[in-house]
Specification:
about 15% strand; 9 helices
């Protein structure tokens, strides 16, 4: 159980009863399978299985509203859920990778080695060329967080970087830790909020998927070799 940061408590509902927020990434996408970041890919076959499993998970849980991003993989993930409860929210879009959108980490390391090293050195503040930084995402989430804290039984289907920011803001995680928080695919994060505290429960659904978490490498120097640059890149097709 953690305390909700004081910067957010003013926006909590005046209702003191326990409220529940559900967070989930989209199902596994085709870009996830091939190690590509960003983009607007469709779900993989296993991603569609997760969409069905998500429907089963919520058979016994009440959801009042469902928010998705503008990207098709989040909307496809809600395919089997109540259509009348769905809203598209641009504020929960994935971090904009700009000129690196739909590239693999290996391709970025080869074509833009300096940029790749700069992001590893300061993942929190690094801004993709013509794109966003994690701090940019935190900024655009501010009005969204105010609305989230007014909701009960809300399901948010979003993306890895965006949900890292949402969780960090709710849990009071340090900003430096934020870019490396684990938010795996095919899991539902249940947050129970009440009396200024938040309890987090992780539900891993039984559908296989790739691991998209990339740890910070030991060597973040610009003159490192490609192997050192990509040593923590998760496996993919």
């Amino acid at each position: 159980m953690k305390m909700i940061p004081t910067t957010l408590t003013d926006h909590c509902s005046s209702n003191n009863n326990m409220r529940t927020i559900y967070l989930s990434r989209h199902g596994e996408s085709l870009n996830n399978l091939f190690g590509k970041i960003g983009g607007d890919a469709e779900l993989s076959p296993r991603g569609w299985l997760y969409a069905k499993a998500l429907c089963g998970f919520f058979q016994s849980r009440h959801v009042s509203k469902i928010w998705t991003s503008e990207l098709k993989r989040t909307q496809q993930t809600t395919e089997y859920l109540d259509e009348g409860k769905k809203t598209v929210e641009s504020g929960i879009n994935e971090i904009n990778a700009g000129e690196h959108d739909s590239m693999t980490y290996e391709e970025i390391a080869e074509s833009f080695p300096t940029e790749f090293a700069m992001r590893d050195r300061d993942k929190l503040r690094y801004r993709y060329p013509d794109g966003e930084s994690y701090m940019d995402v935190v900024g655009r989430l501010e009005p969204v967080m105010k609305r989230i804290l007014q909701e009960d039984n809300l399901l948010v289907i979003s993306h890895q970087a965006t949900l890292r920011c949402v969780l960090a803001l709710l849990l009071g995680t340090s900003l430096e830790e934020l870019p490396y928080m684990r938010v795996p695919l095919h899991s539902v994060i249940e947050l129970r909020l009440g009396d200024g505290e938040v309890e987090m429960i992780n539900h891993k659904l039984n559908v296989d998927c790739v691991d998209t978490h990339r740890a910070m490498p030991d060597n973040c120097e610009i003159n490192r070799n490609p192997f050192e640059a990509c040593i923590t890149v998760p496996g993919h097709l």
